[in-house]
Amino acid sequence: MEDTQAIDWDVEEEEETEQSSESLRCNVEPVGRLHIFSGAHGPEKDFPLHLGKNVVGRMPDCSVALPFPSISKQHAEIEILAWDKAPILRDCGSLNGTQILRPPKVLSPGVSHRLRDQELILFADLLCQYHRLDVSLPFVSRGPLTVEETPRVQGETQPQRL
């Protein structure tokens, strides 16, 4: 028993967390946010929006979980296809509807609406605002692509075919 080693669980967990967050950083970084204004439902709150489908609804597993009776289980979705493209808002057949406030527009189930930065949205009776986040480009261009011919090695013959 004298040869046993004490394990520091905190250090191992921190290392694991750092590795996973670094490897997923490009996928996990939000590209937008949905701001919920304060009101009868409670204080204001921000929800990050990521590439792909962001489901807005009452269920706890939704990307934007709004646990209020007026919000449907899966009320709407905000789909972001690329960081430089406008997100698409769709109502998922909610009971109390989804609206754009300026100019006024009620979204029918399945109808797409391209969101603009700072656009006001009404999910049932809950006022929200979409914000586009400035996201760094995944790569940096280093100038025009050039193609160079591969130099031949002296004495090299044609490659043999198998």
Automatic annotation (TrEMBL):
Disordered as annotated region, ranges: 1-22
Acidic residues composition-biased segments: 1-19
InterPro entries attached to this UniProt entry: FHA_dom, SMAD_FHA_dom_sf
Domain FHA residues, every copy: 54-100
Pfam family, one: FHA
Domain of life of the organism encoding this protein: Eukaryota
Name of the molecule in the record: Mediator of DNA damage checkpoint 1
Gene name of the encoded protein: MDC1
